[in-house]
Structures are given as structure tokens and as C-alpha cells.
Amino acid sequence: MSSGIRDIPSLYTAPVHFYQQFDLATSYGGPLALLVVLLAAAGYAVVFSGLIGRSVDISTEKSLALIERTSVGEVKRDELDDRLRTAREAAVFWKVLASGASVLQGPIETLGRIFLGAAVAFVAVAMSGRKPAYHGLVSILTFAAYVEVLRQAVVVPLMISLHSVEVETSLAVLLRGRPEASAWLYAGLQAVDPFSLWFYALAAIGISRSGQLSTRGAVFLSILLWAGAAGLRTGTVWLVDSLGGEVTI
After folding, report:
1. What helix, strand, coil percent values describe the chain, rounded to 5?
2. pTM
């Protein structure tokens, strides 16, 4: 039996049953397109609320204050005014960039998680001696990724009510506001997130119940995918930080 968009609620209430009746030939085009639209809409809601502009304005004010503080007695007033004007003009660019990132980040990260995860799963299934179905694996991960919609349904209202984009659902919240904490540690703790863990749990259920891997193999694969994603995020932040880049937590 094929599963479709109308069956998504049962994915949360009865995931084993959902994937037990899952057809690997199920088309993922419609569900994937809807997922991308919903995640982009969540990002746009944050932009529309004015939180992105407010966040950039706060950063800009801090930069202007720093420029004035470090330039007193060092540069002429005309040069100082030029620096301040340049910072204000740059803020307009950063607002556009941050707004675009807010809309596109969720869909891009989720698409990467789905297609890269399916590619790794394809190799794992082939190595197990079974016949891998790449499109079926993409479908399984596409439906599992709908937990990201639930995440946004929690996070976006919190952002709006708290008037801040600094909302964290992972263990990284324990390091929030502690500048002495390592940026790479913060990135690593972001992987310990209930919604991310839920995604990988659903992936394991789907891959095992569809017959692509044994239960033990599917669980091991999901742990591997989770660890790989966490390691990539942590390693990237560590590299940027070690090269002198700015990483804020």
C-alpha cells in the first residue's frame, strides 16, 4: 500500500504501521515539494515578523559603537563619518542576505540530509547483499523529514513571542550566553536535538520496515548518519574558528 501526504499524521502517531505499509515505489515528488514550501514559509514568517531586520540592526549598532569607540582621537571626523556610513550601508546588504538565508536555510539543509542520507543508505543496503531502492530510500527520508515542520511549528512562535531569533531546542542551549565556551562544542551539542533524533529514529524504522535493512542494520545506519552530520557541523565550525573566523554562540 502506498503512503502519501494525507497519511503524514499517522507517521507521528503510528510510525511502525506507516512504514510497514510503505511502498518503495511511492513518489516523493509531491511530499518533497510540499516539505520545501512549508519550511520556506516558516523562514519567511521569521523575516515577515521583522526579527531578522531587528537582529541585523542590533549587530549594526554594536559595530557603530565599536567604530566610534576605537576611532576617537585616531581619525578625523570626516573619516569617522565615512566609516559609520559604510557600516550603515553594509547593514542593508546584510539584511537582504540574512532574510534570504532565513528562507532558504531550512529547505537546503533538509534536502541535503535527505539526498545524502539516501546515498549513504543505498551503499549500506548494497553492502548488506540486498537490492537497494534509491528512490524508495529518498521517499522514506522525505517523510521522516516532516519532523522539521513540527520543529518550525514550535520554534517560530517562540521566536516571535520572545522577540529573538536566538531560540535553541538542542542541548546547546546550556552554553547560550557563555562566550568562554568553545564554538565547536556548541555546534556538537546542537546535534543532540529531539527533532533531529526523531528524524533519525523514523529513518531507522522506515529503512527496516521496508525491508531494505535489518532492524539492527537500520539502527546502526541511522546512528552513523547522525554522527556524520554532527561531525561535519562540528568540524566545519572548528575549522572556521581555528582560521580566525567569527563564530558566535
Report:
1. 75, 0, 25
2. 0.85
